Amino acid sequence: MTCILQINEKSLSEAKSIISSGGAVAFPTETVYGLGANALDTDAVNKIFEIKGRPNDNPLIVHVHKDFDITELIEEVPDYAKKLADKFLPGPLTMVYKSKGNVSPAVSCGLNTLAIRIPSHEGAQKFLKYVGLPIAAPSANISKHVSPTSAQHVFYDLEGKIEIILDGGECKGGIESTVLDCTGESPVVLRSGLITREMIESEVGVCGEYAYKKGGVARSPGMKYKHYSPKCRTALFEFSNLENAIKLYDSESNCGVVCCFLCDEKTAKSIGKRNFLSLGATPEEMAANLYSKLREGENIAQLLIAIAPEVRGGIMAGVMNRLTKACGNGNES
Ligand code: TXA
Ligand code: MG
Q1: pLDDT in tens, 24-43
Q2: How many angstroms is it from 137 CA to the middle of ligand 1?
Q3: Order of strands across the sheet with 276-278?
Q4: What is the H or E stretch that residue 287 is in?
Q5: 144 Cα–ligand 2 center, Å
Q6: What residue's CA is closest to ligand 1, atom 33?
């Protein structure tokens, strides 16, 4: 049986005993919910891959408490990375370093690097402090499904597969952390998120961005997989192509298909009396609402028609990356 528990002394002690005996616990972060296990225990880490049905070449992020000495796990921290850590951590920024090989090799799927994240969510910090171990954790969804931003989302995907879900309310960030490669002379964004390339650049002068090309070698293996996908049919249109989106909606509706638009507040005003789910008005709102609206959409519609918001730049890079992966077809399955 899977229980959703408020975070307190009793649930934390239960979480600790599950983690120390090699089990997995779902916990909140400021981005999405994670499914955590002891990063030092290979069987426990393998269990995460099994529970999620995750491909075994897609490495995990190690989550640590803010007082944890990360030099136990990784080789040198470049000066630019120290600066970024001072500015943005704890927070939604995952930093990839050369690994010392002190965690289970299953965490990084054989890579010689290690991704480390210090989440800012109070519940995550309490959990990490209480268990006192580095915790390997992917998002707490079934592989390829939409990431969870509430304890109920985790329950929907993982009921019967894990014992407890620590409930820290709805995640305020809404999209996964920025993954930043810190193994080279300057940082490179491997996955965009709430800490944007522009924010990193303004702190340390220069920041690259890695673009995965279909069929190529992925520097961040997660990039090549289909992700974040709702269970219904989907389509994605540019804002400039709104007219064709409406045509698709109307022709499918005429054939009896239940359709729903997924769009920002502004676009919702131009679609007449058709079904829609609004992502909100600002980029922050759109990031925070994206996954819960995708989950809502798959439950009410047979065809979800996303319209890319007109506003771009900043955290919209992360929002568009997730929206394209969820509703477009720009990836391998
Ligand atoms: O916000 C988040 O990052 C959430 C919460 C739970 O912390 N976690 C999360 O984990 O999104 P996951 O497993 O869904 O995504 C981890 C991403 C993948 O794209 C993976 O390929 C990349 O991080 N990654 C992990 N270790 C890496 C490494 N050593 N080198 C390059 N990329 C790595
Ligand atoms: Mg994930």
Answers
A1: 999 999 999 999 999 999 99
A2: 8
A3: 233-237, 303-307, 259-263, 276-278
A4: helix 283-300
A5: 8
A6: 220
Q: Tell me the backbone φ, ψ of residue 158, rounded to 5 degrees.
A: -115, 15
Does 61 contact ligand 1 (Cβ within 6 A)? Answer: yes
Cis peptide upstream of residue 90 (ω within 30 degrees of 0): yes
Residues 94 and 1 sit within 8 Å (Cβ to Cβ) = no
- 310 pLDDT above the threshold of 90: yes
Please give the number of the atom of ligand 1 that sits closest to the Cα of 176. Answer: 1
Ligand 1 contact, 117 CB (< 6 A)? yes
SS3 sequence, 177-221?
A: CEEEECCCCCCEEEECCCCCHHHHHHHHCCCEECCCCCCCCCCCH
Sign of CA dihedral 84, 88, 91, 93: negative
Distance 64 CA to ligand 2 centre (A): 18
For 98, left (φ over 0), alpha (ψ -120 to 50), or beta? Answer: beta
Atom of ligand 1 nearest to the CA of 30: 1
Amino acid at site 100: K
Residue 223 alpha carbon to ligand 1 centre in Å: 10
- For ligand 1, whether the C-beta of 121 sits within 6 Å is no
User: Looking at the CA of 105, which ligand is closest?
Assistant: 1
pLDDT tens, residue by residue, 164-191? 999 999 999 999 999 999 999 999 999 9
- pLDDT tens for 73-98 read 999 899 999 999 999 999 999 999 99
CA torsion 245-247-250-256 (nearest 10°) is: -80
